[in-house]
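ok posting inputs for the norvaline job
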Amino acid sequence: MQLSRGESVRDTALVLSRYVHAIAVRTGPHAVLEELAEHATVPVINMLTADHHPCQALADLQTLREHFGTLEGLKLAYVGDGNNMANSLMLLGATAGMEVAVACPAELAPDADVVARSGALVTQDPAVAAAGAHALYTDVWVSMGDEEEADRRRSLLAPYRLDQALLDKARPDAIVLHCLPAHPGEEITADVLYGPRSAVWDEAENRLHAQKALLEILVAAPTPNLPASG
Ligand code: NVA
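and the output
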């Protein structure tokens, strides 16, 4: 790769398209992924940008469907930073017929467009999001690229820790999800992360299966009209 010494994203897309059957990208700015997708002639998969994390959300929905047998009508409560994970869960959750509620501080709210498109509930009160939920979800408080703001984020997010008291507000059969890496004692307590309601390790395993399935669809049986990103 020559990106770091000035080769354009466009040229990178054109070259990689001659080498491989699909390009999976993990990067910061979402615009880089969009530019790659615009110029590549093979599928471009979003493996994480600052704005979206759809592959993780795919594995999360797989985990929920395995556990509850269906996705339609489930309530997912996301608590914490209104980040890439929150955006993708709102979008994929809505697509799957789920109710998604996001609890976050006003200063770290998710993308307003995504909220409008998905019809998700956004609240500053974790208890409101958790009420009646089938699953509680959280993510790191300091995402990749946000390191300089770590102290500010930790103090804004302190009331949004996923702990047993919050879990008690969800349904009695609710499960706990986390995209990892987890910081026990920070965004989630250790007793919840490693406790009987945690489906985090099934979820981690499903990253393998969901991404294999995605490649199967995109590469083994290409469908020209599938969206390239987002
Ligand atoms: N929101 C996190 C997800 C890590 C899988 C990040 O972007 O770093």
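notes: The chain has two domains: 9-50, 54-206. The beta strands are 23-25, 44-46, 75-79, 99-103, 121-123, 135-138, 175-178.
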